[in-house]
Amino acid sequence: MKGRRAFLAAGAGLLAAEARKRLILIGDDIGAVAAIGDGTIEAYRNGIMRSANLIIPGPWLPQAIRLLQANPGLDTGVHLTLTSEWDRVKWRPLTPMSSLVDANGFLPPRTRDVAAPGVSLKEVEAELRAQIEMARRLLPRVSWLSSHMGAAVASDSLRELTLRLSREYRMPMQGDIAGLKRLKVPYSSSSTREEKVTAMLGMLEALTPGIHAMVDHPATDTAEMRQVGHEGNRNVAEQRAGILHAWCHPKVKEAVGRLGIELASVGACVNRPA
């Protein structure tokens, strides 16, 4: 009888776990711009975000490290970076990468540049190792990896390299979550702040049981952030301030509680290598 009760209890626990709605919101690019650092922490402290990606070659890395050290509950991964996309702020690699950088030593703006013929995998490997090891030295709790603009997995050989490093450092990739359901961002770059709130509420209402993840870029609207962009996309500061507004909005937080949604993190859900 005791065995039967234990079996039934275990089955009930499994069903309850499968019925849970878990949401992972990931803030991208902390370390790239001061306003991204401030927005990331705001989205964690006063919003519904619980994970963030750290750009190690970013010019604002020291600020990002201080903020993350002051907020030890914020789950953090290493955002492996081989591109520098904006035209008024740039970053360089940590290591010599003559096959990839431009004439000024900056990383290229486009993902396809990283997968181009002539880019040295040996140089890429040295750079990715340097980023992982610096991250672990400066913020020992970093525990997973992701790819900025998809560049570190932009070809079969790059993907193979990145997955090998993931296994070697025992840091799973951001998407290594069993049964993960990837969410599309429910608003557009032209959505107003309140339209973003409405879109977030609709997304929350539609969540089904399971683990859902969405990546976006919360930031504050500052004079510095207004300089970030490139031709065809000069409204980045307002776009990202709108994301922060939606992720921290009282109606959004109320919906999370009312709908019984568990705010989860990448680090708590990824499949750890043996």
Record keyword descriptors for this entry.
274 residues; alpha/beta; TIM Barrel; seven-stranded parallel β-sheet; 7 strands; 42% helix
CATH class: Alpha Beta
Distance between the amino and carboxyl termini: 36 Å
What is the averaged pLDDT score? 94
Gyration radius from CA atoms, angstroms: 20 Å
For the largest beta-sheet, the strand count, sense and barrel status come to:
7 strands, parallel
Order of helices and strands: HEHEHEHHEHEHEHHEH
Low-confidence stretches: 6-16
The number of helices is 10
The beta-strand count equals 7
Tell me what the structure shows.
The protein is α/β, with parallel strands linked by helices and 274 residues long. It has a single domain, classed as Glycoside hydrolase/deacetylase (TIM Barrel, Alpha-Beta Barrel). 42% of the residues lie in helices and 13% in strands. The chain is built from ten helices and seven strands. Strands 1, 2, 3, 4, 5, 6 and 7 form a seven-stranded parallel beta sheet that branches. Helix 5 (121-138) packs parallel to helix 6 (156-169). It is globular and about 55 Å long. The protein starts with a helix and ends in a 5-residue tail after the last helix. Mean pLDDT is 94; it is low at 6-16.
Q: What's the layout of helices and strands?
A:
Layout: H1 2-19, E1 21-30, H2 34-45, E2 51-54, H3 61-70, E3 75-80, H4 111-114, H5 121-138, E4 145-147, H6 156-169, E5 181-182, H7 193-206, E6 210-216, H8 236-248, H9 250-258, E7 261-263, H10 266-269
Parallel strand pairs: 1-2, 1-6, 1-7, 2-3, 3-4, 5-6
